[in-house]
Specification:
Radius of gyration: 27 Å
Low-confidence stretches: 233-237
Strand content: under 5%
Oligomer: single chain
Largest sheet: none
Mean pLDDT: 86
Shape: elongated
Number of helices: 16
Helix content: over 70%
Length: 323
């Protein structure tokens, strides 16, 4: 191993070895700091995050009763280097920085409650506009597909604690996480459409069933119980098989079938009986076979043909309210 590297990646690796006592080197925080800083100054994002975390550790120890003489500078350096890494698109740094900003939001509330906010601000130990920066960095990470950031944004927009409550953004980011297969997000999204998170999100039984089914398929017992509750609540069910085949309840093909169900099929005794049998059988069919390629391959041409005939007869495929 090169003991005096000039390459940023080698410097970072050497710092990491000293930080963790790897590859035969002793744990040495000062040497770890030295090499992290060398690499960070060359612009290596991983080293910038590591250096930010190093300063973060110093802040934590000071807050736990350790030496506080350098805490203000340590905090500023922590934010500085984490920001450098976050600006390069490093998701972990973006999440770390967002968490630090949330901590500042909590501190500000506490300081205001204690009546010492102005005094603390004069010491310069607070991050400027932490709520805005928290959302900014969470959004940056969420846009890169990070589920943690997406669900954190959902929570913040749902609670409206540090940022204004926003139902549209709440549902948007929760949907992003649910679409990636996150079980808790799928359950929460089902609850959204059940109306559990306020009236800003219109109730939609079909969407609730769709996402609760997704979560239940992953073994969520509470989602299974919610699902039974929704299904037992009366009203029209979802186009389960078509939704499974097309991968969405919100596409023109499914809207066409839903409109046919609600505006034509349900108008006759035979049609209502068909709907009743379909919704008694189709959830189980989807649960058993929905993830199978052969199932989708078998069903899709049939449903495509039905949809084409319905649309050619004038049945529209645009969204409408069927709650």
């Amino acid at each position: 191993m090169n003991e005096n590297p000039t390459d940023a990646k080698e410097q970072y690796e050497l710092g990491n070895n000293y930080d963790s006592g790897l590859n035969g080197l002793p744990e040495d925080r000062e040497k770890a700091f030295y090499w992290y800083k060398k690499a960070a100054e060359q612009g290596l994002a991983d080293a910038q995050q590591a250096l930010g975390d190093w300063y973060g550790g110093a802040v934590y120890r000071a807050e736990q009763g350790g030496d506080q003489t350098t805490m203000v500078d340590d905090k500023k350096n922590m934010v500085f280097w984490l920001t450098k890494a976050a600006e390069q698109g490093l998701v972990d740094a973006q999440l770390n920085l967002a968490n630090r900003c949330e901590e500042e939001c909590e501190l500000i509330e506490e300081f205001k409650r204690m009546g010492v906010y102005e005094e603390v601000c004069k010491k310069g130990i607070l991050i400027d506009e932490p709520a805005e920066k928290m959302v900014f960095w969470l959004t940056k990470a969420a846009e890169q597909g990070d589920v943690t950031a997406q669900t954190d944004l959902f929570v913040h927009y749902k609670q409206g604690k540090f940022v204004p409550r926003n139902a549209e953004k709440m549902v948007f980011w929760l949907t992003k996480a649910a679409e990636q297969g996150d079980e808790l997000a799928q359950d929460d999204l089902g609850r959204c459409y059940m109306g559990e998170f306020g009236q800003d999100v219109p109730k939609d039984k079909e969407k609730a069933v769709f996402w609760l089914t997704k979560a239940a398929e992953q073994g969520s017992e509470i989602s299974e119980r919610r699902l039974a509750s929704v299904r037992g609540g009366g009203g029209g069910g979802g186009c389960y098989i078509a939704t499974c085949v097309y991968g969405s309840y919100d596409c023109p093909q499914v809207w066409t079938l839903r409109r046919y169900r609600d505006h034509w099929l349900s108008m006759s005794w035979f049609g209502r009986r068909f709907i009743q049998i379909y919704y008694a059988v189709s959830p189980t069919v989807v649960r058993l076979f929905g993830g199978k390629n052969w199932f989708n391959g078998l069903c899709k041409p049939v449903i495509d043909n039905i949809v084409r005939k319905l649309q050619s007869s004038g049945i529209d495929g645009s969204p409408y309210s069927d709650v």
